[in-house]
Amino acid sequence: MEITNSIVVALSVGFFAGIIVIRILNKNKSVGLLNEAKKEAEKIIELANEKGENIKKNKIIQAKEKFLELKSEHEKIIFSREDKIKALEHEVSSKENLVESTLKKQESLNLDLDKKLKEVENKISLLDKKKVETERVRKEQIKQLESISGLSETEAKESLLESLKKDAENDALIYAKEKMEEAELTVKENSKKIILNTIQRIGAEETIDNTVSVFNIESDDIKGRIIGREGRNIRTLEAATGVEIIVDDTPEAIILSCFDSIRREIARISLHKLVKDGRIHPARIEEVVTKTKKEIDQEIIEVGKRTVIDLGINGLHPELIKYVGRMKYRSSYGQNLLQHSKEVAKLCAIMASEMGIDAKMAKRAGLLHDIGKVPSVEKDIETPHAILGMQWAEKYGEKPDVCNAIGAHHDEIEMSSLISPIIQVCDAMSGARPGARRQVLDSYIERLKNLEEIALEFDGVEKAYAIQAGRELRVIVESEKINDEESSNLSFKISQKIQTDMTYPGQVKVTVIRETRSINIAK
Fold first, then answer.
1. CA distances from residue 205 to 299, 338, 404 in whole angstroms, order as listed
2. Which of 61, 319, 343, 372 falls 20 to 30 Å from 472 in CA-CA distance?
3. How would DSSP label each residue in 369-427?
4. What is the pLDDT of residues 177-208, one digit of tens each?
C-alpha cells in the first residue's frame, strides 16, 4: 500500500509539473519551451518511477526481516513452554512417588493403631469393672458411717463445709490483721516523720475560683454607656471576649459570667480600661480587647517563668512554661491549679530528698503533673488529663521518668519509676487536706449515705453513723449476735469493703461498739 501511494505521488508531481509547463508555454506561445518542458516532465516521471521501485524493494525487504524476527521469537516461546512442561511432568512424577510411599507408611501405621486401640479397649473395660466395684464398696462404707453418726451424707457435708468455712474466715482475718499490724509497726515511724515534716514545712493559701466575676463601677450611669445604643456596645464586647455580661439591678456592679477564667480576666481588664478612658464604642472595644489579650498572653508567660524560677527548675520548654502560666487561671474542685501544682512540687521535692531520690526531678514532675487540665487548642476531650499531660511532656522533651510520673498519678498507666508513687501520694495530700477543695453538697451527702449502707449490709449490725465529715464510721452491733472477737473482725471487714467499693479523700476510721446490758428489777 505504501509503494502504491509513493508511485501515485510521483505521478501526481509529474502531472502537475506538465500542466504548469504547458500553461507557461501557452502563455508565452513558445514552441521551443514546450518541447523542453515535455522533456523535463518525462525525466521527472522517469525519476518518480525509479524512486517508487526503490521504495517498493525496500518495503519488501523490511517485511521479510520482520517476518523472520517474529518467527524466531515464536520459536523461542514454544521452546520455553516445552521446557516448563517437562519440568512440571518431572515434579508431578516425584510427587506421585512421594504419595505412594506416604500411603504405604500410613497403612503400616493404621495396623499398629488398630492393635493399640484393642489394647486400650481391654484396659478400659477392666477399669470400668474396678470402678463399679469401688463404687459399691464406697456406698457400703457411707451407709455404715451414716448408721454410726446418725447423719445423712448431705447433712455431714454441709456441716463439715460450714465449720471449715468459719475456721478459714477467722484464720484469714486474724492472719491479715497480724500482717497489717506488723507492716504498720515497721513503716509507722518513718512515714510519720516524712509526712509530718513535709506538711509542717509547706503551707499554701486556699483559693476558690468561681465561674463569675464582679466588675465594680462608680455609678450606675456607666451601665448605660457600657450597653450602648440599642445594645451594640455590650454585644461587641461579648463577641470579642466570649464572656456573658450581665447588667442587672445590682447597684454599682456588673457581672461577668464564663467558665474560662482567662476570658473573664480579659473582659474585666478591658472594661476597666474602657471605663477609665471614657471612650466606649465598638471600634474602641475591639482595639482594647485585642491589646488586653496580648497583655494576658504576656502575663501568662511571665507567671510561668516566675514559677519555674521560684521552684528552681531549669531547661523547661517554652510551651510547657506557657501551660504552667495558664494554670493561674484554672481551678480544680475549687482549688487553684497553679497553687496546687506548686504545693505538690514542693511536697515531692521534700519527700524525695527524705527517701534519697532525685529531688529536682520529683519537683519537676510535681509541677507538671496536672498540665493536662490546662485548656488548649490541642486538647482532646476524650483523653484523661494525666495521659494528655504525659503526651505533652513527651512532645516537649521531658525525661521518661517525669512522663511516667505524670501519666501514672491517677493509675491510668503502670508506674515504672520511684518518682511516680511520690507524685501520686503528694497529689492526694494536697487535694485531700481540709479546706483545699470544695465538695458539692449532693456528692458529700451521697458519700455519707454510702458509708452507712455498707456497714448495715453486715449481719448483726444494728445502727451505723458517719461522723466527722465522713472521716469516721461508728457501728453499733447487737451484743447477742456479735461477740468481742467477731466485733474486731467485723471492723476489719467493713474497712476493707469501704476501701474496695468507695473513692474518698484521706482515710475513714471504723469503730465497732458492742454493749452488754444486764437489767434486774428490785421489788
1. 21, 11, 29
2. 343
3. TTGGGS--TT--TTS-HHHHHHHHHHHTT--HHHHHHHHHTTTSS---STHHHHHHHHH
4. 777 777 666 666 666 666 655 654 554 443 33
